[in-house]
Amino acid sequence: MTRLVVVSNRVPSAAELAPGQEGAAVVGGLVSAVKTLMLRQQGLWMGWSGRTTTRRRSDPPTIELSGGPVELATIDLTLDESNLYYLGFSNRTLWPLFHTFPERVDVRHDTFRAYQRVNERFATSLFPLLGKNDLVWVHDYQLILVGEYLRRLGWKGKIGFFLHIPFPSPDVFEILPWARDLLNGLLEYDLLGFHTQRYRQNFVDVMDREVGGIWNDPHYAVGDRTVKVRKFPIGIEPGTFHDAAMASTTSVSTELSLPNDDDHKIVVGVDRLDYTKGIPERLKAFERMLDRHANMRGRVTLVQVTQPSRSRVREYIEEREKVERLVGQVNGRYSDAAWVPIRYLYRFFPQTQLARFYHDSHVGMITPLRDGMNLIAKEYIAAQGEDPGVLVLSKFSGAAVELTEATQVNPYDTDGTAEQLYQALRMPHTERVRRWRSQMNAVTENTARTWGESFFQELQLS
Ligand code: GDG
Fold first, then answer.
1. Which of 209, 238, 382, 426 has CA 20 to 30 A from 148's CA?
2. Which has more pLDDT, 258 or 221?
């Protein structure tokens, strides 16, 4: 049997992969989707333990058995590596670049060198653990060069790479002084996967401009290297969210003591605290809606659920301050004795509670400025029942390609988003049901399982 070897920056804990934990919640889109595949497949999952150490860098990986079919191999990083490779090049250079925030891109040679070193160390730690028939699947922007380093060590087997975030257009990609280095690294894979056709096309356009090869769909060839390029839209396990919403007994209105009135509407937003997620823009659109439609004052609450993320990176500290300032401003302007317009929750929740937030709200407002896919949008749809809420979704998310019946908005357009939010709050039952059914079909078609299996099969064929 072919063994699947997954490499990602972080891995779940052995406890999360143990038998009986199939439905256990994990935060982060990548881990929850890969976990679905790994639990059905004998495999090895390798990544950073999340720990920093003062020991020598060449420590061998720690191997842990989860008790199930999956083995875990983790390496520690030094504090310097974690600062330069992870907080630095991955999150202050590649993350803003790939999400098309050029003014936020931090170009530093020392962080790129650390990125190369850590990618190499992932490869040298993994190489001795590999067997002849293994298939290696590398994930995401933190580890683009792992494939190339594995090749240098002599690995001849198949390697695939999946990018969980957008791939930008050539005008943005060329900002990076090491554009060619990353592209050469990507050429060492047998299969490249992107969420959407647009990111796939951007990759081809970038290759054409920066490297110059031959595109014979789905293959891109440069000299004697050929890579297959496909789209694999990631999904969720829809049943899990529906069941989770049903399992929670306390309604959101009770939990948050919202006004006890059948007409009172709930709008929910759920995001990691990240400037790509467009939280300030959403708060402004909500405020604009209240400005323009006085009839909604006192009759609608925005529940903004925000998970702490990358809280040591300066941009994220500033983003949090911005969000909290805006929440204060809107609440300061409009609150009265009976009503607080925005309820801001800054913490993690169990998955059942999250599903209940989705299920009990009249509108799900998922409005990133740019997002590879956005699984929250799909989870929102999966958690609805007979009286479904309306999804207000940014047209700049990968999910918008599949969820065409969502109310699609441009989050940079405050007036337009405010107006569409108002319409969403007033949408009649028949239209809500019609739109929800169409979106539910899309969510059921591309699940976490079909995503993992189709990548795996395609890699075997490459
Ligand atoms: C990247 C790309 C792409 C969140 N808060 C809690 C919680 N979560 C879970 C959600 C969801 C996941 O985390 C978040 O996934 P997203 O897709 O929305 O976003 P990113 O973390 O930015 O993921 C993204 C994804 O990779 C997959 O390819 O879609 O575009 O940026 O599953 O449910 N889970 C629990 N408590 C929380 O408080 N239990």
1. 209
2. 221
Which single residue is written with the structure tokens 């047998």? 190
**Structure confidence at residue 312 as a pLDDT band (50, 70, 90):** confident
Q: What is the rounded average pLDDT of the residues 352-370?
A: 96
Domains 4-235+447-461 and 238-445 share a fold: yes
Query: Is the predicted pLDDT of residue 24 greater than 60, yes or no?
Result: no
Instruction: Identify any residues that bridge with 397 across adjacent strands, giving them in sequence order.
Output: 371
Query: Span 213-217, mean pLDDT?
Result: 98
Name which of 88, 97, 13, 4 is nearest 48 in CA terms: 13
- DSSP, collapsed to helix, strand or coil, labels residue 148 as helix
Q: What is the pLDDT of residue 278?
A: 98
As a whole number of angstroms, the distance between CA 168 and CA 303 comes to 32
Q: What fold does the segment set 4-235+447-461 form as a domain? A: Rossmann fold (3.40.50)
Q: What is the DSSP letter of 88?
A: I
Whole-structure pTM over 0.85, yes or no? yes
Using a 10 angstrom Cβ sphere, with 0-12 exposed, 13-18 middle and 19 or more buried, the burial of residue 5 is buried
Q: Taking residues 284-303, report their average pLDDT.
A: 98
Look up residue 245 and give its two tokens: 């919403």
CA of 58 to the centre of ligand 1 (A): 32
CB 189 within 8 Å of CB 150: no
Average pLDDT over residues 118-144: 96
What is the pLDDT at residue 13?
82
Q: Judge whether residue 185 has pLDDT over 60.
A: yes
Structure tokens at 190: 């047998």
**Greatest extent of the chain over all pairs of C-alpha atoms, in Å:** 71
User: CB-based contacts of 331: which residues, under 8 Å, 6+ apart?
Assistant: 340, 341, 342
Q: What is the reported pLDDT for 276?
A: 98
Contact 210, 170 (CB under 8 A): yes
Catalytic residue chosen out of the listed positions 99, 164, 195, 359: 164
State whether the beta carbon of 36 lies less than 6 angstroms from ligand 1.
no
Q: Which pLDDT does position 70 carry in this prediction?
A: 86
Helix, strand or coil, per DSSP, at residue 74: strand
Question: 3-state class of 95 per DSSP?
Answer: helix
Q: For residue 410, is pLDDT > 80?
A: yes
**Ligand 1 touching residue 371 (CB < 6 A):** yes
User: Which strands sit side by side in the sheet containing 43-53, from one edge to the other?
Assistant: 62-65, 70-78, 43-53, 4-10, 135-139, 159-162, 191-194, 225-231, 219-222, 214-216
Element (H, E) at 136: strand 135-139
Hey, what CATH class is 238-445 in?
Answer: alpha beta
What are the sequence ranges of the domains in the chain? 4-235+447-461, 238-445
Task: Kindly report the protein residue whose alpha carbon is nearest to atom 34 of ligand 1.
Answer: 27
